[in-house]
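# nightly structure sweep
# worker-07 picked up a monomer target from the shared queue
# config: single-sequence mode, recycle default, output format = structure tokens
# input follows
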Amino acid sequence: MVPHVLKIDLGGVPVEWLRWQEAVTLYARERVRWEAGEARFRLHGGIRRDGTRSSMEISSIIAVGDRSRRFERGRPMVHNRILFARDRYVCLYCGERFPARELTRDHVVPASRGGRDVYTNLATACRACNARKDDRTPEEARMPLLALPYQPDMASYLLLLASGRRITGCQQSFLEAFVDPRRRPS
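# output follows
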């Protein structure tokens, strides 16, 4: 199985993960400007008229001249999976670790009071703590946060998105070079 391909911009900044099919399309349209990383994958296609099988070799990291539309102004979109991984599957109110299915997204400043749906206003919470906090701030509920919510940078976001999935060592190393060591996903 071919892992996802890391798409970077022309300056080498991480942009998004691509399925191998999307990467092949970019190669076929001659949109790949340069490649990075040692890992390469040979993909085989159909049979040509002359009876030979078509194939294409792709890199695990490709630079493309366009920008991803998945991120608004360079900010990753909010996903519970990323939020829970950012907080290491720990409720930021009681400190207990839970499986993802038992966690919820909590707005530090409640949405009903103008709290936005952004990473800096979101905390991972177990269902019991989220219900107990209700429509109050942590101070009002006397439930202080155990860690401050933060906005993952793009490289951290892509590492968090890849957690539990197969990525190559060169992709991991490439992304880790962009991440603040204090915020490195585990």
